[in-house]
């Protein structure tokens, strides 16, 4: 029988990933009992293994995902097996055990052609295979866990524990005098550690009965472009932002279409008693002081 006690073990799937590692760090710093399972520890498409892992948990935070956006274009079935079927298996296990599920999704489930921030109830319409695979997962959570399923869409994620745009820009600073960066895609750069803190806050609110199940947008406030993000990362690192030059998406054709507009609205947080996440500049200013980023500035130059 489900209770609204804030106590209990949390389970984090995809615990070896950038976000999964941060969620575990936040939980442990908060004194919350947590178990992290990597892909090698748990195949989320295996119903029996998932049921055993979920048993006794209070909250499951699903950070497991197929994240190769371009690779999904030629392997959509494989991507959907993880992002869709695997999420359904998790949702079924959570429903049977009366466990709350916080499922991390993506802005890519949206069509990306808006001019104003997407509301949580905006009509979906993925423009690539990755987005379609993630939408299958969202639909499973909404169907099976209408009260205890929390779909948290994020976007433009960067952090200390994996490849990401900010780290790439800082690495390239030692190799190139100038960089051409896309300036016609708009979004909300989001620090994975800030998102991890928000996921834990949401899970705690859910356990107290203060947060309803549904869709939440876990992105930073404000908006910018990839070029704007790169320039701000350089400015904060003491590098010349003018080394970043604007270009268009047409100059960087990739297998998967990218949404032109990935700005999400955050109205849903008020109902959970939580403020929207900090703006992207504030998040970046805090993140970029971490050794994982500052160490990149010590890389030898091309000369």
From TrEMBL:
The keyword NADP applies. Residues 10-290 form the RmlD-like substrate binding domain. Transmembrane segments: none annotated. Keywords: NADP, Oxidoreductase. The keyword Iron-sulfur does not apply. It holds the Pfam family RmlD_sub_bind. Gene3D superfamilies: NAD(P)-binding Rossmann-like Domain, UDP-galactose 4-epimerase, domain 1. This is dTDP-4-dehydrorhamnose reductase. It comes from Streptomyces avidinii.
């Amino acid at each position: 029988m489900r209770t609204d006690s804030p106590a209990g073990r949390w389970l984090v799937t995809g615990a070896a990933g950038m976000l999964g590692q941060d969620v575990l760090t936040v939980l442990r710093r908060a004194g919350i009992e947590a178990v992290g399972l990597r892909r090698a520890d748990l195949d989320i498409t295996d119903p029996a293994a998932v049921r055993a892992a979920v048993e006794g948990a209070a909250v499951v935070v699903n950070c497991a995902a197929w994240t190769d956006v371009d690779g999904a274009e030629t392997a959509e079935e494989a991507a959907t097996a993880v992002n869709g079927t695997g999420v359904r298996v998790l949702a079924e296990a959570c429903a049977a055990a009366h466990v709350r599920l916080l499922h991390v999704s993506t802005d890519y489930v949206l069509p990306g052609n808006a001019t104003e921030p997407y509301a949580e109830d905006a009509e979906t319409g993925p423009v690539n295979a990755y987005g379609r695979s993630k939408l299958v997962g969202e639909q499973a959570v909404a169907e099976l866990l209408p009260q205890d399923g929390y779909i948290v869409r994020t976007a433009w994620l960067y952090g200390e524990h994996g490849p990401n745009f900010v780290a790439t820009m800082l690495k390239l600073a030692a190799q190139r005098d100038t960089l051409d960066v896309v300036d016609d895609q708009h979004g909300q750069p989001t620090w994975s550690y800030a998102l991890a803190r928000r996921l834990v806050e949401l899970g705690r609110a859910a356990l107290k009965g203060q947060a309803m199940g549904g869709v939440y947008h876990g992105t930073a406030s404000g908006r910018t472009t990839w070029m704007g993000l790169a320039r701000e990362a350089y400015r904060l690192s003491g590098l010349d932002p003018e080394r970043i030059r604007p270009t268009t998406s047409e100059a960087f054709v990739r297998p998967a279409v990218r949404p032109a507009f990935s700005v999400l609205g955050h109205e849903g947080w008020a109902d959970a008693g939580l403020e929207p996440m900090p703006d992207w500049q504030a998040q970046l200013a805090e993140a970029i002081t971490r050794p994982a980023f500052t160490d990149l500035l010590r890389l030898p130059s091309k000369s």
